[in-house]
Amino acid sequence: MAAGNIFGIHAQVLTLRGNRAELLAKNLANADTPNYKAQDMDFNSAFNAAKNQQTTQVMRTHGQHQGALNESSVSGVDLKYRVPGQASIDGNTVDVQMEKSEFADNSVRYLASLSFLNKRINGLIRALREE
């Protein structure tokens, strides 16, 4: 098995789930901000784009570094605006209950991938110790 495939898809999934958690947290933090438009990503599209991406991206430590992602994309995938179930008087589109639900679902899926990676790493450590 090649070194890049040791962890399978779960390394990419963790990155994408982390990015989505940031988006959802940003939405929740702006629940009372007038005219704030809630955003989310289509996880499946983001994952497919990450799988098909041939180049390795360098992690940026500051938003003003060259090549930083703009506010309308995460991991190279365009963000989508949420359509609210009920319009708000102040123009805010955050539905707090829906955002909390999506955040919880995303967190459970993040932890599942993290658990899988942990088991894979522990298996590799055991294999190395036996040699």
Descriptors:
50% helix, mainly alpha, 3 helices, 131 residues
Question: Brief description of this entry?
Answer:
By secondary structure, the chain is mainly α. It has helices spanning 10-29, 43-52, 96-130, and strands spanning 39-40, 73-74, 77-78, 80-81.
Task: Describe the fold and architecture.
The chain starts with 9 loop residues before the first helix and ends with a helix. A two-stranded antiparallel ribbon has the order 1-4. It has one domain. The protein contains three helices and four strands, in the order H-E-H-E-E-E-H. The protein is mainly α and 131 residues long. The model is unreliable at 54-58 and 66-70 (pLDDT under 50).
What does the secondary structure layout of this molecule look like, with pairings?
Layout: H1 10-29, E1 39-40, H2 43-52, E2 73-74, E3 77-78, E4 80-81, H3 96-130
Antiparallel strand pairs: 1-4, 2-3
The H/E string reads HEHEEEH
Query: Biggest sheet, open or closed, and with what strands and sense?
Result: 2 strands, antiparallel
Could you give the distance between the termini?
18 Å
Give the total of beta strands.
4
| β-strand amount | 5-15%
Low-confidence stretches: 54-58, 66-70
